[in-house]
Write a structure and sequence with these properties.
By secondary structure, this protein is α/β, with parallel strands linked by helices. The protein has 22 helices and 14 strands. Its EC number is 4.2.1.12.
């Protein structure tokens, strides 16, 4: 105890346990605009805790990398694996046994899932995610896409491109498109692990600070020693996981969550797979059109109703489990309310209203699509995920010859050389967890978008990832078994005819079965060395498929728990 309080001004309170002590896990750095505001959050949160007789300590920090910075670079090969490092860092921070609750500071791509995977190993403690909010809107998304495509075509230079990008990503706060970072916020609310309506309150505003204050105060009310203790392990149950998937479908969120939700669920002892996603996608309509599914960003979405309106509509249609525990006092019903700033400068809530703009957000009676925005596609090429929410109806089915590549850079070179000036399905293999860490292939979208604008039928099939940024390009991603493991994609050759259909869920090479079965897969991809990637060799070696969450740490943990369980006699206290 003396070690733990030596540097603290609240020694007496800590030593004599006069109030709850909150363990803060921070992922602050200057590389992520969304995480830069966290620099001063811990000192603010300590003050907020003292207001209600509690204390707070920074338990530890976790790394947080930006896929927007590393896209197309060597660092992206470590992106998915950083999730395990974040989970392990979270566990190390919480291992000191000093805390009655957890405050998790994180927003972006692998960070929120990693924080939850680590925190759930301390599931006897209540926990809450504290977001920092999106930046204000910058360059309109249609203009951003136009500039990127002009650059791909060589019609403008890097200076013009940089100017547009800087106008898009221009301050602290979360990027405003509905990619993985903002989908994380949606997931956290649907899981009941954030304050209601806290996801999309703009950064550095009075309401945002009031929400952080309210979150700290609320956490002290549900602490380990409180009369209303709400352990994270009881919040994240099967029904909460279903609610999170329903939210993903209704809002057309990132395909990365077909990896992250299974990984988080497994950390809570729950198994879900893409069959579950498909069944829910068939039942849950698409209610939102947020960029890249539509022209408007999360700020516009929030202005016209946001997540409270989505939750209100889904609850009225009995499409969410209401009988779940959340960090909010009245359960899921509290999440169908809008946050406002009261006269006392504290957060006040009012009932959510219907959407004020049906071009961005619609009710259950008139959705954009009768089904969810993410589909399962499968066939003799394996199983993959297809984000259909932004794809036009006439491109839901693509049947064309394939061109097979083993890097995204090779695709760009082929496009620039005019080799893709035809109907084509671009297949990029050797991009799965075992091959090179499963990097996101953001850089392909402008190139393939140019080909679509030229009138060609184009699609992408890959065992890699594409996040929520696929936009209008038809794409089957996360295809498994991955090529590295001898999966079917490794047997494709240039010119083979493939059919990809989101309507029927078809992902097949159109070939005589005996001829296809006689094919031999290409040699496994060799992961490149250098820039730290070799440090993750053991992670690549044991990574499970994307459908199982793609977490080497989780795979080894599950195996160890199973082996220990086999050795425990019935009735033994554990």
């Amino acid at each position: 105890m003396a070690h733990a309080v030596a540097a603290m001004p609240d020694k007496d309170s800590l030593i004599h346990s006069k109030g709850m002590n909150i363990g803060i896990i921070t992922t602050f750095n200057d590389m992520l605009s969304a995480h830069q505001p966290y620099e001063h959050y811990p000192e603010q949160m300590k003050l907020f805790a003292r207001e209600v007789g509690a204390t707070a300590q920074v338990a530890g920090g976790a790394p947080a990398m930006c896929d927007g910075v590393t896209q197309g670079q060597e660092g992206m090969d470590m992106s998915l694996f950083s999730r395990d490092v974040i989970a392990q860092s979270t566990a190390i921070g919480l291992s000191h046994g000093m805390f009655e609750g957890m405050a998790l500071l994180g927003i972006c791509d692998k960070i929120v899932p990693g924080l939850l995977m680590g925190a759930l190993r301390f599931g006897h403690l209540p926990g809450m995610l504290i977001p920092s909010g999106p930046m204000t809107s910058g360059l309109p998304n249609k203009e951003k896409v136009r500039i990127r495509q002009l650059y791909v075509q060589g019609k403008i230079g890097k200076e013009e491109l940089m100017q547009a990008e800087s106008e898009s990503y221009h301050s602290d706060g979360t990027c405003t498109f509905y990619g993985t970072a903002n989908t994380n916020q949606m997931m956290a609310e649907f899981l009941g692990l954030q304050m209601p309506d806290s996801s999309f309150i703009t950064v550095d505003t009075p309401l945002r600070q009031a929400m952080t204050r309210a979150g700290v105060h609320r956490l002290t009310e549900i602490g380990f020693k409180s009369k209303d203790c709400r352990p994270m392990a009881e919040v994240v149950n099967e029904k909460a996981i279903v609610n999170a998937i329903v939210g993903l479908m209704a809002t057309g969120g990132s395909t990365n969550h077909t990896i992250h939700i299974p990984a988080v669920a497994r950390a809570a002892g729950i198994i879900v797979n893409w069959e579950d996603f498909e069944r829910l996608s068939d039942a849950v309509p698409t209610m939102a059109k947020i960029y890249p599914s539509g022209p408007s960003d999360v700020n516009k979405f929030n202005d016209v109703g946001g997540l409270p309106t989505v939750i209100r509509e889904l609850m009225q249609a009995d499409m969410l489990h209401r009988d779940v525990m959340t960090v909010a006092k009245n359960g899921l019903a509290d999440y169908a309310q809008r946050a406002t700033l009261g006269a006392d400068k504290k957060v006040a809530y009012v009932p959510a209203a219907p959407s004020t703009d049906p071009e961005i957000l619609r009710g259950m009676a008139d959705p954009f699509h009768p089904g969810g925005g993410i589909k399962l596609v499968k066939g003799n090429l394996g199983r993959g995920v297809y984000k259909s929410s932004a794809v036009s109806e006439d491109r839901m089915t693509i049947e064309a010859p394939v061109r097979v590549f083993d890097t995204q850079h090779a695709v760009k070179r082929a496009q620039q050389a005019g080799e893709l000036d035809k109907d084509v399905i671009v297949v990029v293999i050797g991009q799965g967890p075992r091959a090179n860490g499963m990097p996101e292939l953001h850089g392909l979208i402008p190139s393939l978008g140019v080909q679509m604008d030229r009138g060609f039928k184009v699609a992408l099939v890959t065992d890699g990832r594409l996040s929520g940024a696929s936009g209008k390009v038809p794409a089957a991603v996360h295809v498994g078994p991955e090529a590295q493991m001898g999966g079917p994609l490794a047997c494709l050759r240039d010119g083979d005819i493939v059919r990809l259909c989101a309507k029927t869920g078809q992902l097949e090479v159109l070939m005589d079965a005996k001829e296809w079965e006689a094919r031999t897969p290409t040699k496994p991809h060799r992961a490149p060395l250098g820039t730290g990637r070799e440090l993750f060799a053991i992670t690549r070696e044991v990574s499970p498929p994307a459908e199982e969450g793609g977490s080497a740490m989780q795979y080894m943990m599950d195996r160890e728990i199973a082996e220990v369980g086999d050795d425990i006699d019935e009735g033994t206290e554990v």
